[in-house]
Amino acid sequence: xxxxxxxxxxxxxxxxxxxxxxxxxxxxxxxxxxxxxxxxxxxxxxxxxxxxxxxxxxxxxxxxxxxxxxxxxxxxxxxxxxxxxxxxxxxxxxxxxxxxxxxxxxxxxxxxxxxxxxxxxxxxxxxxxxxxxxxxxxxxxxxxxxxxxxxxxxxxxxxxxxxxxxxxxxxxxxxxxxxxxxxxxxxxxxxxxxxxxxxxxxxxxxxxxxxxxxxx
Length: 216
Hints:
The chain has two domains: 1-47; 48-197. 57% of the residues lie in helices and 9% in strands. The protein is built from ten helices and three strands. It has helices at 3-15, 17-25, 27-33, 38-45, 49-70, 72-78, 80-92, 109-127, 135-148, 204-215, and strands spanning 154-160, 178-184, 192-197. A three-stranded antiparallel beta sheet has the order 1-2-3. A hairpin with a 7-residue loop joins strand 2 and strand 3. Helix 6 (72-78) packs across helix 7. The longest helix is centred in the N-terminal third of the chain and has 22 residues, at 49-70.
């Protein structure tokens, strides 16, 4: 196994509590499952379990703190459930870069983590349900802010079932779908944004096609 693959296994040990427990309890069996050589298994198994656990825990808290800064409104709405969901996410998702709108560019790892966790919230909300019901729209709205901030030039249009600009406030009209528009004329220009009440017959698929056409 090459250096990159070994580092990937080490990252899994730091992020996945169950895998870490299994490896230190049965290093040769679990190491073989992970594709490690005998020498690599011996090297990793000699690590201090206590030190690995301390580092893994501090890494998770650091990641949580960074994501809280990226999704502040979602944090306020979910409260303690935000942290609970993040611990679930952090057990299986490794921080890594994701592609920008330009094929040859990458989003910063810190931003990529916020985007990935927002995707996780949306998935959990869809499969299991999360209160309030509109929190997945709010997470997707904040995620889109992170994505479009990397947009050098173009336009992004998104449809939301709820009024994402006022979600969390007492005067939010939850029956009002919303269209969110972001645009930037050049890499050095200001990122513009506007929220508009959406006709209910507008679909998210239609708006994705519009956004794609205008970026091309």
